[in-house]
Amino acid sequence: MTIELINTGSELMLGRALNTHQQWICRQMADLGYTVNRQVAIPDAPHEIEAAVRESLSRADLIITTGGLGPTSDDLTRDRIAGLLGRNLREDEEAVRRIEQFFAARRRPMPDKVKTQALVPEGAMVLQNAHGLAPGVAIEVDPNPFRPGNAPSLLIMLPGPPRELRPMFKDSVIPMLPNKLPLQNPFFSRTLRTVGIGESVIQERIGALIAELGIEVGYCARVSQVDIRLAALGNGSQKLIAAAEEIVRKHIGDYIFGLEEDTLESFIVRELTALGKTLATAESCTGGLIANQITNVPGASAVLLAGFVTYSNAAKEKFLGVRMETLKAHGAVSEATALEMAEAVRRETGADYALSVTGIAGPSGGTHEKPVGTVFVGLATPEKTIARKYYNPYDRETFKQVTAYQALDLLRRKLSAIA
Ligand code: ATP
């Protein structure tokens, strides 16, 4: 089976937008057992769109295009593909109704051009857009004049904005795949998400054991986190994946915080919610990143009471009540300050748990004793307050991200009763 992805958008070619569709769609397809064979990014230019789609139609069973379905003059995908296939455009009633409803609900006049988004090629299946105006489209190109023997292809066009594309892919594209493009063999995959352990250590502990099972294993390293992807094809693959998961859990279970799309912060919010417990943060060098990550999770309001960014000594003293003597005697970046910050924010907010961070992000400010990258993370709980020292000698952004994950991981370990 041949699958090709065409990402359109001049902003991609100008480096003004990162092509996240490429990664996201390939990942979704891989998790379902499909491999994308080829991906191209092209500008919003009529001849480029036509040439790329024509080429893909000459060999692929499934072609997915992204972008260019909107109402502006650079949104050409739908028109050009309809032209290439010799199909007229028709107005889709349901799409028109949704567009009219959108403007009526906002009591805004509807610009004329907007309705062009409801135009779809004749004979196409319409994929309604729950988060925007332009519907997606799926076309069975059968017979396919561009392919040897006129073999059929399925051509799917998806809108550009990720918040529109992703739900449409999940709600409309995934459900049609088993029927339109059945896999020869059953496929199973499992992604286990870890934090606080490096990929080479993981491989050392589980690599040989998993290899004995004869399944595919992949490691994807991100900042502070490594995803372990187990995949197998064929009869019995589900059992093999379960056996592999057991091995991973047995050897590095303490580092696993979730599966598939889980995030560390969603784990924290879920656990605290289940326990009926609350959290507060006092951050210095992470500039509010911990609170930001927690508030990215729906339902965060049930657990996060407050997040302080106390960058200066004066703010640590004034808003948290950290003692000037502590700051003078030990310095702002110290275990004693991290402990006091965590205790103070827990006391002031009445939260059950409190996290604090104080460190030296650099590039300046380091000393021989406390080099750039030194950071202390505090955790105050109903039972006691602890602090850990870390060394994160990275650029500022990575430093912040790594430190935020270390703090969240400290809390995760406490909530999971991991030593
Ligand atoms: P619109 O109605 O917004 O015009 P559209 O379907 O025409 O939707 P585009 O105009 O191509 O989509 O893209 C809209 C926005 O979506 C882009 O400005 C960009 O921010 C984002 N986007 C498009 N393609 C990608 C991509 N491959 N990866 C990440 N973001 C993208």
What's this entry about, in short?
This protein is of the alpha/beta class.
List keywords for this structure.
419 residues; alpha/beta; 6-stranded mixed sheet; 5-stranded mixed sheet; 40% helix; binds adenosine-5'-triphosphate
Quaternary state reads: single chain
Which secondary-structure class do the elements indicate?
alpha/beta
Which of globular, elongated, flat, extended, rod-shaped describes the shape?
Answer: globular
End-to-end CA span:
48 Å
Q: Which whole number gives the mean pLDDT?
A: 95
Strands, count: 17
Which percent range fits the helix content? 40-55%
- Gyration radius from CA atoms, angstroms: 26 Å
Q: How many helices in DSSP terms?
A: 14
- The share of residues in extended strands comes to 15-25%
Strand order of the largest sheet: 2-1-3-8-7-6
* Biggest sheet architecture: 6 strands, mixed
**Ligands in the structure?**
adenosine-5'-triphosphate
Topology:
Layout (H helix, E strand, L loop, with lengths): L2 E6 L1 H4 L6 H12 L6 E5 L3 H12 L4 E5 L10 H9 L3 E3 L1 H13 L13 E3 L3 E3 L8 E6 L11 E6 L3 H19 L6 E9 L3 H15 L2 E6 L3 E9 L3 H16 L3 E4 L4 H12 L3 E5 L5 H7 L8 E6 L3 H8 L3 H7 L4 H15 L3 E7 L14 E7 L4 E7 L4 H20 L4
Parallel strand pairs: 1-2, 1-3, 3-8, 13-14, 13-15
Antiparallel strand pairs: 4-5, 6-7, 7-8, 9-11, 9-12, 10-11, 15-16, 16-17
Helix pairs in contact: 2-6, 3-4, 7-8, 9-14
